[in-house]
Amino acid sequence: MAAEVEVLEGTVQNILEQESLKWVFVGGKGGVGKTTCSSILSILLAQVRQSVLVISTDPAHNLSDAFQQRFTKIPTLVHGFSNLYAMEVDPKMEEDNLSDEGLEGFLSELTNAIPGVDEAMSFAEMLKLVQTMDYSVIVFDTAPTGHTLRLLQFPSTLEKGLEKVMALKNRFGGLFSQATRLFGLGDEFNEDAMLGKLEGMKDVIEQVNKQFKDPDLTTFVCVCIPEFLSLYETERLVQELTKFEIDAHNIIINQVLFDEEAVESKLLKARIQMQQKYIDQFYLLYDDFHITKLPLLPEEVCGVEALRKLSQHFVTPYKSSLARGTVEEVQQRISTLRLQLEEAELELERLQKGKEEA
Predict the structure, then answer these.
(1) pTM of the shown model
(2) What residues have CB less than 8 Å from 134, skipping those under 6 apart?
(3) Does the active-site annotation cover 58?
(4) 36-66: per-residue pLDDT in tens?
């Protein structure tokens, strides 16, 4: 086991060193810290790459909260950086921006008839936009697992959409042309224009999908916490990524309680034992992955400074400041217990005083 850990260090250094990487997806169950991890990854990448764009495709949009700066669907330079940009895209909202007239309106209606096509099309538009911007690397802060997997399925979703349009064209071709002339929509609203637009998107998506399946260009970082549901969700995610031929060899386990730092609390000790059980399972299941463990922090990670501070644990495995059983650690425990005793005595004094006055 020690040899395996030596081979695959518990950091994200491998991602920072892979200069060919163009797309980095960060995903996992809701509430495990994906946005914090994608923000920190983008900060670390900005140190070694020419230009970095971090995109949130999660409708909850926490990037603005993480960096404490307002982001929109237009890439914005992050305060304090010269080469890190951020943007927030809502796949559902993008479709509402389409005009309700002519070709766009019809396309909008069509997408409602095919589940997932609206997301696929807006994602295609975004990728088209991103590709023209020429960033060295793009980090995706994705929505919870199910949503992410839908985005990875979009080439086949669009394929189905095109088949549906072709079937409609074959059945109602003549009628369709007559209707467009009758409503005075002219030649710009014909099957060819509509199919051309869908075909164009399909081309972009197929091109991007090819890149997504190339381990030199794309990798997926799974974020989780040491609990059963998160382990289960990570396993499902890794299996789906394998099915879609998308490379994944990094797992970040967030909110880990380290035994040395736990105060003398039965509750915390029980949590540590529970967490350790699942951490052992992660190492067993993913012995060919880089597993990075992050400590549970007493405060939220908000703002560039807090993100930078936590980023050190992404490149150097976290070690507790005190080792269990050393003189320093026992002294620390004694001073903690003394403080707790003093607080308890003060509380008892207050209660007794209150009782006497009553």
Answers:
(1) 0.76
(2) 51
(3) yes
(4) 999 999 999 999 999 999 988 777 668 889 9
